[in-house]
Design brief:
The structure is a homotetramer of 208-residue chains. Chain A has a single domain, classed as P-loop containing nucleotide triphosphate hydrolases (Rossmann fold), CATH 3.40.50. Chain A is 27% helix and 25% strand. Chain A contains 6 helices and 11 strands. In chain A, the strands form 3 sheets. Chain A has a 6-stranded parallel sheet, with helices on both faces. A 3-stranded antiparallel sheet of chain A has the order 10-9-11. In chain A, strand 3 and strand 4 form a beta hairpin. In chain A, helix 4 runs parallel beside helix 5. Chain A is elongated, with a radius of gyration of 18 Å. Chains in contact: A-B, A-D, B-C, C-D. At the B-C interface, helix 1 of B face helix 1 of C.
Chain lengths: 208, 208, 208, 208
């Protein structure tokens, strides 16, 4: 029986690099993988981007409200027009990898669990544990509840300790209000901090 | 800087035994520990009970609505009547251990985090990850979000695989409705199952 | 395919308690386990003793020079005189647990690996990582090389940090010479220390 | 107190990628790292090469017979001619990372331990656990004995299970004789296998 893994980490901990390396390892051994990410990722594209410079397109998006297991099954079977046109053989899928898994809906995480347990395909879900207010994202929460294995991807705080939280910044200011999802861009950016530095910038504020 | 650890496992995975062994290890080296559990643990007593036969009383309960950090500080300082009467010296606390941590309130878990980070006392929180419907308990959820380290205590399913879920049973029947907390007794009991056996008894039902 | 696990820790980290809890978990679910330890354990007895107060006899010893896999197979099949006399049914073995695994011979560790991989029985080997000179024991070394999974059982140093080394003491003196195995007794005892405290008492001496 | 980490994995498990990502994480936060590898790495160059396509030069080699701690101290202090010529400021080193750590001498691993414990600089050592005969390399062995934390970097076997061993191949043939180190090239290559596939190709042969 295959398992559902949740590989979680703070922002900029190397999640996409880890995913791309894992995909490479499978393919180097002649095995087929499928890469996916939630359609609600407001970055709006289909790329998996490593800060080390590598990029790769996902095989499919998982739109809001959709069944991740049905979409997976269709792609695993090769029922996509491109493959059919090319008469591509469709070997079994050795692994499904999902980036930005924090943005999945809880029911879609349940789907990933069924893909692992019922379809016997290992699922590696990479994602952020909590938002800038230290609350789990919907997808992260469900993964923390039901994943067979929780594996932390570590990164460091500016002080050298392990970073576990993400602070949202607008310019130099740290903000604690706003929507859960505000993609980093010109104004908004995120800094991963350890517990001590987080409590310092938050004035002791955590979830409460 | 000390850390907050969440050692989670399915029911009957040996959490209380692990806690008692950890306490023993500290005390054997001449160090002082404090043991606590939530007051809302409806077993209604102050004992930490290992199925291997060991029992020990907690040093304090954490009642609903209370500040875990204040109660801890008072006990760490030796402000309890028994200690004062005995003129007991109060060495610093080397570790705080919390059993049944799934029943803590989220704000009390935030307190545990502050005890670790601000008071520099390691906190070992032992608890169950999810209820009989595979949903996190309030305390577990907050621990999954903010603990510095998540460590799984393993146990096995009747089929030999690793158990990750807890099913509620009334006699032989598996039930999926009812309050989140129903302490096991004559009628109600729990069985820890792996993902495959859980989906079998639930007819494919998970959270969704 | 089952796996060989090496659960290692410094002395007095709760290895035997962990083993007894794991055995209890299996048996509580109606599954059969076998407990073993090396015959060369110079404590000379057949007991697994937890410092928390529990004791249990092993099902068999693994004498020096013997094949651990053959002995296991005989006991798994119920070919021991006691069982035959009692006409005991012999259900399959769900798990083999080995205490004091650091004293196994390397070839016996290879046997444990084959029991896991070829006989499909999970093997939990509990043992100490290194001797009082920070050198692996023969059994530990082989387990560190080939176990599928290495899991640390933690305990603490007198300073509160994680202990990883074992110092040998004769009375209050710390000694760095002598046989690798000198069972603790009236004169000789061991103290688990962190790296910092070890380097302090050793005057900076490690393996070199 | 800083720690010595051994991140071990079978060949082609992504060790160099992991190292480069970890270095990137530190530097992105404005912190200084040093990268090193043993001089005896018979690849004979000073590059850290990820199969994903990234390459980076080490800051220094650790030649056979040398003191890793002295070389580290000199580079940390900026006593290298290039830096002096450029009047480069030398901020403290936040992390030392060592690739191909299996080729270190045991005394050099002891040096890494002292760098962590006495100089308070975290050391990340990446390396292979065992050779093609399932025996630890000298550096791996010492790291398995004394590293504060052992972390496995996973990869997969051709069968889809976790690979833990490395087989040496000359063309299609699997060989079990020869020097411990034979760098892969035109004739010699390595395949990472799980325990089951290894025992199959070795005819049941392991270390014994």
């Amino acid at each position: 029986m295959a398992k559902l893994y949740f590989r979680y980490g703070a922002m900029n901990s190397g999640k996409s690099t880890g995913l791309l390396q894992a995909a490479f390892n499978y393919e180097e051994r002649g095995q087929r993988v499928l890469l996916a990410k939630p359609g609600v990722d407001t970055k709006g594209d289909s790329g998996i981007v490593s800060r080390l410079g590598m990029t790769r397109s996902v095989d499919f998006l998982i739109p809001a409200g959709s069944s991740a297991r049905s979409i997976f099954a269709a792609h695993a079977a090769g029922d996509d027009p491109d493959a059919l046109l090319q008469h591509v053989d469709t070997p079994p899928v050795a692994c499904l990898m999902v980036d930005e898994a924090q943005f999945l809906e809880p029911a879609q995480v349940d789907d990933l669990f069924r893909i692992a347990v019922l379809d016997n395909v290992p699922v590696l879900a990479y994602g952020i544990r909590t938002d800038f207010r230290t609350r789990a994202f919907p997808g992260s929460l469900r993964l923390l509840e039901i994943a067979h294995t929780l594996e932390e991807l570590k990164t460091i705080c500016r002080c050298g300790r392990k970073a576990i939280f993400n602070t949202r910044r607008v310019g130099e200011a740290v903000v604690f209000d706003g929507d859960q999802v505000a993609i980093d861009g010109q104004d908004v950016w995120y800094e991963s901090l350890c517990g001590s530095c987080y409590l310092e910038v938050s004035g002791g504020r955590l979830g409460s």
